[in-house]
């Protein structure tokens, strides 16, 4: 049963819930975007864990329609370990990179508005989670000991504290949303919210549902379903599909090395699909995938060098040089620029 204590009194009673006062900043402009941002962007840190040793960084963007009544989304990017910026810039947020304008050698990435942003109808909290992702960090080594279960617990604490600090959103319809690996985290967070409401944990949350895009659920089921998916999209022949189904008994992961027929069929399926971009099957698979820190021998110098190597060709041109994964290089350059971090009020570490 949800507590009937007046919201204002509950908030006063809960001020002691946070050991460390949350830092939050309204960001009015960003490097790469011309002029003042036409939406409200707040960034900040919230401490979770027994002693607030885990500092989770977030981006909060108010709905461009009516933030007082529009839904509030807690957005969790997958990975695990993909920055919240990935979801904000490449998926549901109001900004994206202007790839054409950014293609000039040596120039820093440019930003433009995303006409399909979900923030046109909802307010969204993008969180760098779990700890160690993006700009989130821990104040001691123990804070980096993380699991999906602990990550869900920390996120539940995060949304509770966030609502305490933003009481004007307590009554808004709340949705927990995300993609990919967050499919393992979202159900746990939702369950904790439901149980918290049942026992009267403050603040009460107006949970309405959850949204999961291509979520990870069960590793074995997810992997095996790819063969059915490939068949239904006509990426493999019916003959090959039926042979694999019979010889492998629906188990295409960790195949018995003695089952030569199954191994042969699985290899044939891989041969048919390996040239396709698994995230966009209408495009070829790129040889040069999006760079990761370990691939780049991570240092500040390579970030500057990258601007001299990024010359993406706009889609639809006659060039064969364009690769969708090239677009993801921009985020490493932009987010690691000191002027960007200063604008976002990132803590020095």
Automatic annotation (TrEMBL):
List UniProt keywords, sorted A-Z.
Carboxypeptidase, Hydrolase, Protease, Signal
Q: Is Hydrolase there in the keyword field? A: yes
Query: Matching InterPro entries, A to Z?
Result: AB_hydrolase_fold (IPR029058), Peptidase_S10 (IPR001563)
| An MF annotation (GO) of this entry | serine-type carboxypeptidase activity
SUPFAM superfamilies reported for this sequence: alpha/beta-Hydrolases (SSF53474)
Signal peptide from the UniProt entry: 1-23
Indicate the segments annotated as coiled coil, or none if absent.
none
Which GO annotations describe the biological process of this protein?
proteolysis; secondary metabolic process
Pfam families xrefs: Peptidase_S10
The similarity comment for this entry is: Belongs to the peptidase S10 family.
PANTHER family, A to Z? SERINE CARBOXYPEPTIDASE-LIKE 7 ISOFORM X1, SERINE PROTEASE FAMILY S10 SERINE CARBOXYPEPTIDASE
Name the chain's protein. Peptidase S10, serine carboxypeptidase
Q: Can you name the source organism?
A: Dillenia turbinata
């Amino acid at each position: 049963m949800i507590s009937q204590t007046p919201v204002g009194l509950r908030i006063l009673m809960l001020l002691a819930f946070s050991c460390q006062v949350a830092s939050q900043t309204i960001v009015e402009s960003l490097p790469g975007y011309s002029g003042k941002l036409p939406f409200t962007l707040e960034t900040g840190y919230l401490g979770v864990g027994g002693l607030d040793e885990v500092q989770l960084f977030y981006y909060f963007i108010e709905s461009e329609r009516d933030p007082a009544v529009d839904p509030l989304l807690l957005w969790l990017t997958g990975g695990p370990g993909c920055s919240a910026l990935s979801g904000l810039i490449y998926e549901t947020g109001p900004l994206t990179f202007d790839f054409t304008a950014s293609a000039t050698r040596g120039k820093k990435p440019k930003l433009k508005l995303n006409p399909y942003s979900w923030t046109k109808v909802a307010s969204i909290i993008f969180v760098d989670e779990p700890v160690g992702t993006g700009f989130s960090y821990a104040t001691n080594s123990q804070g980096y000991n993380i699991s999906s279960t602990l990550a869900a617990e920390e996120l539940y604490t995060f949304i509770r504290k966030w609502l305490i600090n933003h009481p004007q959103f307590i009554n808004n319809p709340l949705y927990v949303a995300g993609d990919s690996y967050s499919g393992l985290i979202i159900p746990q967070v939702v369950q904790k919210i439901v149980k918290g409401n049942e026992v009267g944990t403050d603040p009460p949350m107006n949970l309405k549902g959850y949204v999961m895009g291509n979520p990870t659920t069960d590793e074995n089921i997810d992997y095996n379903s790819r063969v059915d998916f490939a068949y239904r999209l006509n990426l493999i022949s019916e003959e090959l599909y039926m042979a694999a189904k019979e010889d492998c008994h629906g188990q295409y992961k960790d195949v018995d090395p003695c089952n030569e027929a199954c191994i042969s069929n699985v290899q044939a399926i891989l041969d048919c699909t390996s040239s396709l971009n698994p995230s966009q099957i209408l495009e070829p698979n790129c040889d040069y995938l999006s760079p990761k820190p370990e691939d780049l021998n991570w240092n500040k110098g390579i970030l500057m060098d990258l601007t001299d190597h990024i010359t993406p060709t706009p889609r639809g041109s006659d060039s064969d040089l364009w690769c969708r994964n090239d677009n993801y290089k921009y985020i490493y350059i932009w987010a690691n620029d000191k002027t960007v971090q200063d604008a976002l009020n990132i803590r020095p570490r």
